[in-house]
Amino acid sequence: MQASLAARNLACRRGDRLLFRKFDLSLHAGDTLHITGANGIGKSSLMRILAGLLRPFEGTVNSTGSLALMDERLALDPEWPLGRSLAFWHALDGCTDPSDALAMMDIEPLLDVPVRFLSTGQRKRAAFARLLSGSADNWLLDEPFNGLDAAARDKVIARIRHHCEAGGICVIASHQDLGFKAPTLAIEDYAT
Ligand SMILES: Nc1ncnc2c1ncn2[C@@H]1O[C@H](COP(=O)(O)OP(=O)(O)OP(=O)(O)O)[C@@H](O)[C@H]1O
């Protein structure tokens, strides 16, 4: 894998509020990082900046390797059956055999269900199935455990560990305890 992710002197402004400033990070192959902070502090905004989806007010982001952001926005057509929606992304992501990821997240029984009928946890499992069947080097996971039951959560943690042991990077934004050890960065330390 080609993973690396660095941010320098980031500042984030939302509306007329400067949320944080002077935020730096430097991650290399194998690193996991837990971004912590209270509701509304700017975790999701930071993740979108790192993903290149939101322009920082100041500062720069540099990465090598491919990047995947998983957040509350499912990016699956709500009217399509889940299987068809996932197949759309598998084709774009160049995934020829998603069966392992679908089985791991217990998705097969849901493939005929329209996305709009999925429960919160089922949606999250579908999002993980897409992530796991892709080949991104840098994973940006925004509140990845919301809605997951204990069994699904354990599987996801095992896959995060596996991803990083294989040389990937995983940044997890969450106000919750992760349930496993990871270096932490508190956004409060950069709040204005
Ligand atoms: N498009 C926007 N325009 C203006 N303000 C916004 C916009 N999006 C988010 N905000 C504000 O930016 C702040 C940070 O939001 P963000 O979603 O990044 O926080 P968060 O730390 O992820 O919160 P939570 O833990 O509740 O998910 C919030 O006060 C939010 O209302």
Automatic annotation (TrEMBL):
<dbReference type="GO" id="GO:0005524">
    <property type="term" value="F:ATP binding"/>
</dbReference>
<protein>
    <submittedName>
        <fullName>Heme ABC exporter ATP-binding protein CcmA</fullName>
    </submittedName>
</protein>
<dbReference type="GO" id="GO:0022857">
    <property type="term" value="F:transmembrane transporter activity"/>
</dbReference>
<keyword id="KW-0201">Cytochrome c-type biogenesis</keyword>
<dbReference type="InterPro" id="IPR003439">
    <property type="entry name" value="ABC_transporter-like_ATP-bd"/>
</dbReference>
<keyword id="KW-0067">ATP-binding</keyword>
<dbReference type="Pfam" id="PF00005">
    <property type="entry name" value="ABC_tran"/>
</dbReference>
<dbReference type="InterPro" id="IPR005895">
    <property type="entry name" value="ABC_transptr_haem_export_CcmA"/>
</dbReference>
<feature type="domain" description="ABC transporter">
    <location>
        <begin position="5"/>
        <end position="191"/>
    </location>
</feature>
<keyword id="KW-0813">Transport</keyword>
<keyword id="KW-0547">Nucleotide-binding</keyword>
<dbReference type="GO" id="GO:0016887">
    <property type="term" value="F:ATP hydrolysis activity"/>
</dbReference>
<dbReference type="GO" id="GO:0017004">
    <property type="term" value="P:cytochrome complex assembly"/>
</dbReference>
<keyword id="KW-0472">Membrane</keyword>
<dbReference type="InterPro" id="IPR003593">
    <property type="entry name" value="AAA+_ATPase"/>
</dbReference>
<keyword id="KW-1278">Translocase</keyword>
<dbReference type="InterPro" id="IPR027417">
    <property type="entry name" value="P-loop_NTPase"/>
</dbReference>
